[in-house]
UniProtKB/TrEMBL annotation:
<dbReference type="InterPro" id="IPR046336">
    <property type="entry name" value="Lon_prtase_N_sf"/>
</dbReference>
<keyword id="KW-0812">Transmembrane</keyword>
<feature type="transmembrane region" description="Helical">
    <location>
        <begin position="12"/>
        <end position="30"/>
    </location>
</feature>
<keyword id="KW-1133">Transmembrane helix</keyword>
<keyword id="KW-0472">Membrane</keyword>
<protein>
    <recommendedName>
        <fullName>Lon N-terminal domain-containing protein</fullName>
    </recommendedName>
</protein>
<dbReference type="InterPro" id="IPR015947">
    <property type="entry name" value="PUA-like_sf"/>
</dbReference>
Length: 235
């Protein structure tokens, strides 16, 4: 896959630079409908005169599902398919191209344990969602159904033959579902979420990632329940 899109780490996660979309729409949209989104991590050489640089990290293959033409520009619906490793950059102008391979979790023979943990995570997510929709939040707060939207995304089949080797199993996709913010997260909670995401991206063990997600979801359930209790006292 040849088209890349860059994101700098100091930008909000998954906020993609507009110029990349322009190139996608103009050059590749109608032809390939896929591109790679990745994060650039700054590299600082402390104590030396060497200038800082960047390293590509956490690539994700992205499928363009729908394009709606507007009077000015277009509304593009995209979907992350799976993690990729960037092997090489081929060109820089007018957009980055390169070579990537899929990063898929190692096969787990613990199918019974895997199924049990998936069911437990889904049950916890339903509990979290039922609490979160009762929570009063300011208009600028995050959408209160992120966890459920993420679950629907994970369970939706991906039909794209040219990318079939990049599509992870549903259990792997489900293991990422719990790594979502909830309404009213504090700065420290957002940072804890980011740390959990980084750990989840690094591992290739689905069971380990399910545990990471479950810990986070349980913390969110407790946090939202406490806020609901305070909210009831303010009525």
């Amino acid at each position: 896959f040849s088209l890349f899109c860059i994101e700098l780490t100091y930008l909000p996660i998954f906020v993609i630079l507009l110029s990349c979309y322009v190139h996608i729409l103009l050059q590749y949209l109608l032809k390939n409908k896929i591109f790679v989104h990745f994060v650039l991590d700054p590299i600082v050489f402390a104590g030396t005169s060497v200038e800082g640089s960047f390293a590509a990290r956490y690539g994700c293959l992205v499928l363009i599902e729908k394009v709606e033409q507007l009077q000015i520009g277009a509304l593009v619906s995209i979907r992350g398919v799976g993690r990729v490793k960037i092997l090489d950059f081929k060109q820089v102008q007018p957009y980055l191209t390169g070579e990537v391979i899929p990063l898929i979790d190692k096969f787990s023979s613990e199918t019974a344990e895997l199924s049990s943990k998936v069911l437990g995570l889904k049950s916890a997510l339903f509990t979290l969602n039922s609490l979160e929709i009762k929570l009063k939040a300011p208009q600028e707060a995050l959408l209160q159904t992120r966890s459920m939207n993420s679950l629907l995304w994970a369970e939706k089949n991906i039909n794209f033959d040219s990318a079939k080797n990049f599509i992870p199993l549903m259990t792997e996709r489900l293991s990422f579902v719990g790594l979502q913010p909830v309404s009213g997260n504090t700065q420290s909670e957002v940072q804890a979420l980011q740390n959990a995401k980084l750990k989840a991206m690094d591992t290739k063990d689905t069971l380990e990632r399910l545990d990471i997600s479950m810990v986070l979801v349980k913390k969110n359930i407790s946090m939202v329940a406490a806020k609901l209790a305070i909210q009831s006292l303010e009525v």
